[in-house]
Amino acid sequence: MNGDRRATVAGFAGAVLVLVVLFWFVGVDQILAALASADPVIVAALVPVALLWLSSWGLALYTVLQAIDEPVSAPKAVMLYTAAVFANNVTPFGQAGGEPLTALLISKATDSEYENGLAAIASVDALHFVPSVGLATIGLAFFAVETVTLGRNLRIASVAVGALALAIPVAAYVGWRYRYELEAAVVRLLTPVIRALGRLVPRRSPPDPGVIEHRIEGFFTAIDRVANSPRRLVLALAFSLGGWLALTSSLWLSVTALGYDVPFAAVLVVIPVGALASATPFPGGLGGIETALTVLLVSTTGIPAAAAGAAIVIHRAATYWFPTLVGGGSAAALGARRGEEPVVEDE
C-alpha cells in the first residue's frame, strides 16, 4: 500500500512539473488573461456535457455487463463508470493502472468473480478505440479536402490514426482467430508470476495453479460472451460514440468560450489523438494530455498558443477534475453500500 501511495504521489509530482513547464512555455500571464475573458455561460454548459460523456460510457459498461450475464441497473453502471474514471485519474498509466481497481469495484457491485469485472472494463476500454479512430479519420479527411498540405504535427497525427486504423482490426482478428492459443499462452506466462507474487503476501500461501488457470479461463470466457453478442456490441459502440462526441463538444465549447470560431472537424482529430497521451506514467495522463492537446489544437486551428492552453485548462477542468471529484464520490458510495448490506442472523 505504501508503495502504491508513493507511486501515485510521484506520478502527480511529475505531472505537475510537466504542467509547469507547459504553462511557462506558453505564458502563464497570457493563459490567465484568456481565462478571464471566457464566457461563463458556455463554461457552465460544460458540466452537463461532461455528465453526458460519463453517462454514455457508463451505459456502454451497462451493455457489456448484460452481455456477460452480470447485469446491473443503468444508474449503477453509470456510477461504476464514474468510479472507474476516478481510478484511472489517480493511478499511473491511466486506464492500464486503473483497470484492476475498477474490476474489483465491478465484481463487488455485481457479486461476480473478479475476472468478469476485469473482462467487462477491458472490453469497454477496447471498444472505445473503434469510434475514436473513426472520428479522427473523418477529421483528417476534412483537412485533406480543405487544405493543400498538412503541417508536421498533422502528418504525425495522420500516421498515428492510420496505424491504429490498421492495427485494431488486425489485432481483433488475430486475437479472435487464435484466442484459445492466446489463453493457453497467458496461463503459462502468468501462473509462475502470480504464484511468485503470492509468496510475498504474509500469512498467505501462493494460489494453486489450477485456481489460476480457472480464473484466466473465466476472463476469456467473459470476453467470448461479449464478442458473441453482436447486437449489444453495436449498442455499446453507439454509446461509446456518443461519449466521444460529448468529449469533442467539450473542447470545442471551451475554445468557443474564449471567442474563437474553429471547425468542429479540427477537434475531431485533437481529442482522439490527444487521448493517446493517457499512456504516460502520470495519473490519468495528467500533464501529457494537456501538452498533446495544446500542440494539436494550435496545429489544427491556428489559434494562439495561450488561447489553446486556456481552452485546454477549461476542458480538462470539466473532463478530468470534475469527473475525478464525482468519481471519488461514486467509489465511496459504492463501498458504503457494500458495507451496509444486511447480515442475516440465525434464528
Summarize the structure in words:
With 347 residues, the protein is mostly helical. The protein has one domain. The chain is built from 14 helices and no strands.
* Shape verdict: globular
Domain count: the total is 1
> Which percent range fits the helix content?
over 70%
Based on DSSP secondary structure assignment, what is the total number of beta strands? Answer: 0
Report the radius of gyration as a whole number of Å: 21 Å
Low-confidence stretches: 341-347
Distinct helical segment count: 14
Ends apart, CA distance between termini: 40 Å
- In this structure, how is the largest beta sheet organized? none
Structural class: mainly alpha
In percent terms, what proportion of residues is strand? under 5%
Overall mean pLDDT stands at 79
Write a compact overview of the structure shown:
The chain has 347 residues and is mainly alpha-helical.
Element layout with pairings:
Elements (H helix, E strand, L loop, with lengths): L1 H25 L1 H9 L3 H28 L6 H17 L4 H16 L3 H14 L1 H18 L5 H26 L1 H21 L9 H19 L2 H28 L6 H12 L12 H14 L3 H35 L8
Helix pairs in contact: 2-14, 3-4, 3-6, 3-11, 3-14, 4-5, 4-14, 5-6, 6-10, 7-8, 7-11, 7-12, 9-10, 11-12, 11-14, 12-13, 13-14
Pfam family, one: LPG_synthase_TM
Organism: Halorientalis brevis
Keywords: Cell membrane, Membrane, Transmembrane, Transmembrane helix
Considering the chains and any ligands shown, give keywords for the structure.
globular, mainly alpha, 347 residues
